[in-house]
Amino acid sequence: MRLRNWDRNLKIRLFGEGLLNILFWMFFPFLAVYFSDAFGKGLAGILLVVSNVFGVLTNLIGGWCADRFGRRRMMLIAAIGEGICFLLFAYANSPWLESPVLSFICFAALGITGTLYWPASHAMIADLVGPKERNEVFAAFYTAHNLAVVIGPIIGGFFFFNHRFGLLLAAGGAAFLLAFLIAYALRETVPLHEEKPSTNSRELGWKNVIVDQLKDYRVIAQDRNFLLFVVAGILIAQTFMQLDLVVAVYVTKAIPVQELFSFGIWHIKTGGAQFFGWLVALNGFLVVMLTVWINRWVTRFRVGNVFIASALLYGISMVLLGSSTALWVAIGAIVILTIAELVGVGLQESFVSELAPEHMRGQYFAAASLRFTIGRTFAPLAIPLAAWVGYTWMFVVLAGIACMGAWLYHLLFRRLERGKLLPTKPQVTNEVLKQA
């Protein structure tokens, strides 16, 4: 699906969100250092975990609100909230005030507004794009996000430490620009029959609203196919989330400086922290360059086979990383890990939209994000595990976890092929089984 054929909503969002993401990633990678210096490593770690827990809760609330009150309305509220948070964040790092406490409060609030925005954003794509093109559109947004991840830190390394106040003001301006575009250029896409409950919800007390949300999410929890998908995702997240965790520690401390290649009198040597930076850059470069192409290519295959292959490739990358401290082995492992990431990224979001009933898409996308939030909670345990059993066996354990995820995908698609679907989701049969 070419960009010129996209709905106007999606074109505007791609521009607005892309600009905001670049500004966000100009300071986000450096906040851990900033808060560690301000509060100490122990307290900073606890505070970041607590903010992540609040993010999980607000993400689920955001999904429910996107279904009840509309995608556009929730995106607008979240964008305005982000703009206000950025301005307060800028004030906390201004010539008039230097407050790490207020900075952390603003950072935590930004996480909350982001989790309110995300489910509505993905549900809008599912509303506007047909099943055949969804994975390609999701992949395009994923590429734009990762382009920001690559470009942002390169520029932000200078601006964050030298012009933090101006950087945060610019981010606030970008957030308000996005809010303006959402308010005046985007149309609502929520199916009409979803708007009726929103009127009744205003008449209910907050306790009844919470009960209503719990009932809706209980329906999702009883969807065994969706539960298999989420649990498999949590297991597999233990591998790809290690790039910033145990892989960083392993490469920095275990891979010595050695010759990468030579040409005549030219010799390039690297290792340790410098080499890890190169691996991260390689991962970002491959994501930006190959995401759309790979997502077009994988549509030739059955969705179930692609999910299983992705999980197994994650496992292979882990085994390869732990098998040798040679530079080219580590490079090969990162290439395989990146391919595993790319073959599933668009299809997984499209799969969630197919599995979800129309009137619960926002909540399904919110619940699907538990793959990452819960996965992010357990992923750091690999670091003490490495200290206990050694890097080689730690990577073997991670590979085994990825294989368990592949097995759960196998069970999921075998259930779908046998037609063991919940009666509340008959629409899954036509679209998902064609590709399963």
TrEMBL record:
It is found in: Cell membrane. GO terms for cellular component: plasma membrane. Keywords: Cell membrane, Membrane, Transmembrane, Transmembrane helix, Transport. It is a multi-pass membrane protein. One of its GO terms (molecular function) is transmembrane transporter activity. Residues 1-417 form the Major facilitator superfamily (MFS) profile domain. Signal peptide: none annotated. Coiled coil: none annotated. The chain crosses the membrane at residues 12-36, 42-62, 74-93, 99-118, 139-161, 167-186, 226-251, 271-294, 301-321, 327-347, 368-387, 393-412. SUPFAM superfamilies: MFS general substrate transporter. Pfam families: MFS_1. This is Dipeptide/tripeptide permease. The keyword Metal-binding does not apply.
